[in-house]
Amino acid sequence: MSGALSWPFLRLYILALFYFSANAILNVIIPLRGESLGASSTVIGLVMGAYMFTTMFFRPWAGQIIQKHGPIKVLRIILILNGLALILYTFTGLGGYFVARALQGVSTAFFSMALQIGIIDALPEKDRSQGISYYSLFSYIPGIAGPVLALGLWNTGGMDYFSIFMIAIAMVTGLFGYSVRIDKTKEHVTETTPGQSGQKSKMLESFGELVRNPFLFKCSVIMLISSIIFGAITAFIPLYAPQLNNGNAGVFLMIQAAVVVVARILLRKRIPSDGRWHSSFMMGTMLLLTLAAACVGFSIQAGAIIFYLGAGLMGIAQAIVYPTLTTYLSFVLPPSNRNILIGLFIATADLGVSLGGVMMGPVADVLSFSWMYIICAILGTAMIVFAYDRRGLLIGTK
């Protein structure tokens, strides 16, 4: 095998699989552990939201630091930090979990950027999109088995087996990560970059584009609201599923992750790639997301079948919305600061996932998990309308 499927790149994808396997377990264990300690949904949401909030905050700096020091050097430092965060889970309570989630957020900001920049630098242009797609797929694969494993650990071995798994994942990820190599392709030419003050000034100026640029504004709002719904699912399904007859959080998250992986493969050629805003396509995607949240919300009355149907619909929507919006922005944003603006767009996704826990936790405390997910469906309905381009203003050019 050659190109994006050659052994050096397979090692990077496997490293992503190891790295994100801890999160697939933690997304179930942390809410259950928090509930057992008497924490409210608000507190659990804050702990879960700390991860993506710190990822969002540090992501803009990650790209600059990696560009200066190289992906491998940064990656090795981050693997140590990630290992410390995972070990912290083994002997602390909820307060330590908050610190560990924040450390994981910092690690993920640098880890994901280091691997993606490394893949882009090392692959020729014709193979780069394929390399990033494989990286994304491998990062989702742990979500298929991880939630079921987490429930098994929680129901049988308690926190002892959980601690063993966290230490094992930290060691395997660190040792495997230290052995990877990333070589720049001959096609890649390192360009001189402006001074740090110039970069910071350009980045600060770009924040205004979130509002001024109609393409970026629409995509960012849709991504933010979609990610709030995704975040609410991740944070609170482990607490909501036991309220249903035959409801199982591990099965739900496994179905969702499996559908994301399969849909990414089967629908990859269906993603619009012509620089035009396809209103019907995006409205249909938002309809899927709305139906998914509604199925979850009403499943307390309708039963487990509707609950798991919501998992499948959520997986399809999750597989479509991010690559569709990112591909569209790659065409319509100005080349001079395209990377910075796409970075800001990605940050809105991180922020949305964080708000899904932080903002929806108090809603669940005041109302209920069922009503919280119904409110998510209402937000999705608003995005169906928002995705419509009534005047054809969002037609970009290649």
UniProtKB/TrEMBL annotation:
Residue spans crossing the bilayer: 12-30, 42-62, 74-92, 98-120, 132-155, 161-180, 215-237, 249-267, 287-309, 315-333, 340-364, 370-388
Assigned keywords, A-Z: Membrane, Transmembrane, Transmembrane helix, Transport
The record places domain Major facilitator superfamily (MFS) profile at 8-392
Q: Where in the cell is it found?
A: Cell membrane
Q: Report which residue ranges the record marks as coiled coil.
A: none
Q: Which GO terms describe its cellular component?
A: plasma membrane
Gene3D superfamilies assigned: MFS general substrate transporter like domains (1.20.1250.20)
The record gives the membrane topology as: Multi-pass membrane protein
| SUPFAM superfamilies per the UniProt record, alphabetical | MFS general substrate transporter
Instruction: Tell me any Pfam family this protein matches.
Output: MFS_1
Task: Tell me the GO molecular function terms.
Answer: transmembrane transporter activity
UniProt-recorded name of the protein:
MFS transporter
Report the source organism.
Paenibacillus xylanilyticus
